Structure formats: C-alpha cells, structure tokens
Amino acid sequence: MRVAGPDAARVEGTATCSFGEGMTSRLFKWIGITACLWPALVSVPAMRITLDRGPAGEFRVRVRDGEETGGYAVLTRAGLGDGSWSFAGGADRWPDGGTEWTFEPAERSGFFRVRRSPRGEDIDPRRDSSYSRFAISLSLGPNGIDFIDPDYGVTVYTLSYDTFDHRGLASRASGRLCIPQGSGSFPLLSYQHGTMYKRSEAVACVDMLRAVRTYVEQTSSLSLNGDLYIFGYSQGGHATLALQRELETRHGDEFSLTASAPMAGPHDLSGVMADLMLGPQPSPDPGYSAYLLLGYNGVYRWFDDLSDVLVPPYDVTLPAVLDGEHTAAQVNAEMPDIPREIFRPEFIAEFDADPDHVFREALRANDTYREWVPAVTTRFYHCSGDTTVPKENSWTAYSNFFARGCRCISIEDPGPVTDHEAGALPCIEAALQWFETLRAR
C-alpha cells in the first residue's frame, strides 16, 4: 500500500508474515521453565488495515482482524524497490498488543505494511525425560549444589510455541518446562537466559509463560496458584529485568508478578559495559564486544560489510566463530586482549567523540533501567568481585530506580568471588532462599 501527500485518504489491505526466535526457565518444588530459539514458517489471517493522516501530518494506522491475541508491527519504506522494510518509530517499539498506532513519517510518501504474529499459541509439547526425587538429589551434590532439597520428582517437557522475533516476523520458539510429580497448587518459577536485545527476549519470555499456563491448565493434574517468580544470571539477569518491565508495563492484567531477582546482569550497556568493551584496557571476556556489535547490527542494520567497521583479519575470522556453534572460549581465542583493537580507528574515534553514536544509542536502548521503575519487589544479586560483568551494572540500575522514587528494590552481594562464572551458584542459592521466604508468608 502506498500513501502520498498530506491529504492521503484511507487504504485497506491484507498482510502476511514469515519466521524467527525466542527464550525462558526451570526448578524443583516449582513449576519451572527454560528456553532456546529456532526459525519456522507461520501464516496469519488476513487483516483489514486503515491508514489516514492526522492534523500534524502524522500517520495513523488501525487494524481490524477479529483476533484477540497476538502482536503487531508496522513497517515502512520509501519505495517497493528501495531496500528492506524498517520499523515505523524504531525496532524497539514492536511488537505491540494494541490495534491502533501513530507515528511520524520519515518521508512525505512511502509504503507500509502491518504484520501480525500469534503469541504463545499453537503449543507443541514433547516429553523429554523424568527424574525421581532420589535421582535429582543424587545428581545435585557432584555438581556443587547443596542448597536444594527437592520435595518432588519432575517430568521435563520441551514446549514449542508462537512468538515474535526481532524482525517483526512470526516465529517458533521453544522452552523447557519442569512439572513436579505430585498434586496440589504451585507457583510458577521462570529462569531466563537472554540475547541482550531486551525487546525480543522479553516478548519471547512472556509468550513462553502464556504457553506454560495454557499447557498446565489443559493437561496437568496440578494447578497454578497465581504466584510468579522470575530470575536469571548474566545475560539472563538482563533478560529478567527486561521481562519484568514487559510484564509490569504491558501485561499487568494478564500476569501477577510476585518477585524478581536479576542476577549479575549487564544492565548498563551504554555506560559500564561500553567502557569495558571499548576502553583502552584489557577485558576478561573480549568476545563480548564482537558478540554485541554483530548481534545488534542484525537488529539495527548499521552496515552491510564488516570491513567497514573491523580491521583485518577480524572482519573475516569473527563471523566464522559467532555462528552459534562455537563456545565463548573459542570466540575469545580469536580476539585480542583489548577488544577495541578489532575496530577501525575511525570507528573508535567517532564512538569516543559522539555521545549519540549509533552503537552507543543501541546500547542505551537496551539498558534495562530506563523509562520505567519496578512496582514489584525486586532484589539484585551481584558478586562484588565480578570483573566480566562488574557490580556497577546492578548498582547503576538500583540507583536510577531509587532516584526516581522506587522503594521496592534492594541489592545483595552473595560473595566476594572474582570470577563471573563462579558467582552463579552463590547468586542462585541466595535468590532461591529469598523466594522461599516470600512463599512462606
């Protein structure tokens, strides 16, 4: 559909969509969940779309398709042959659960499309395994976990479900669901791991929660008691705070969040992490910089050729190991100790000089503490000796929330470990013990 001029009238049409990614969590004594990602092809019903111009020249888009669930994205481009579609108002705005939007046109004329993706629907469960209470207890000790005494065995499922990816396309995602072998009413515990793009990781987590709730209600002898606890470590800490924001600001009438425990998350990407990734000092995890640059370029589309940003040989060697098949250690092995050495000098000079550089803007857009404050009890966990994701990330988020009047937050240091990986178990132990005290009330 094309709209031209200030007096352009209504246009009606249909829209279709394509494919994508996802994520979510787990544990015993709780009904728990975890997730991963994959692409698939999904079709959606025809939509009736109306477009008009407001008094200030803004576009107003309305959708009517008779569907009560799902998510929408509005995309634009200047002409049918003018490259790829871009999100109206920016990628971080979508998907949206409403059916009416206003946005400023980038050009005086152009084309637009509306995509609808089903969310948390078309659930495909697969039973993976089953563990008795004894088997669980036997496996925990050798793995250094002495703070869990399981009350039940668990049956483990993989749930596939519909969601929305970072391109605004319909996707199939999967998550792990652990159901206690018993009877009664249970809370839901969600453990996140993330992608560092807060919008898509939060959306996929919400849709996993929907899929779990539907599956348990329809097939299990257990019931959910309405309590929801969320936590995650490292990238999962980032995903947890992103999910909390999504639940509180967009899904408060659908889910009642009980408590949140973001653990050692890189919440201040544009500040603390930017200084660590692109500063002149060595980094304990140098591959982090390349991971974010290439990942965010897939969302924000700054450049087509890596050689425009990276110096040889990194423009060739890094994409080969950032393929989802190589470990973090293998990626780090391809990096110099000082991450900024992979970048062209002009890129670093522009980044250092411009507070609104496109990479810094993308990092800022994915800081998890901006433009909202928690309304639900939230406790940050972060080991003070962490050098990979420094504790200042959690303190920055905490301080910003507190300065804006939030008093339902706290922060705790579970131990002075100096290694990011070694901090995981102390944080998880402290968070679970805290959740148990809340359950006992």
Automatic annotation (TrEMBL):
GO biological process, alphabetically ordered: lipid catabolic process
Gene3D superfamilies the record matches: 1.10.260.160, alpha/beta hydrolase
GO molecular function, one term: triacylglycerol lipase activity
SUPFAM superfamilies in UniProt: alpha/beta-Hydrolases
InterPro entries reported in the protein's UniProt record: AB_hydrolase_fold, Lipase_secreted
Superkingdom of origin organism: Bacteria
Classification via PANTHER family: LIPASE 5 (PTHR34853:SF1), PTHR34853
Official protein name in the record: Secretory lipase
Organism: Kiritimatiella glycovorans
Taxon lineage: Bacteria, Pseudomonadati, Kiritimatiellota, Kiritimatiellia, Kiritimatiellales
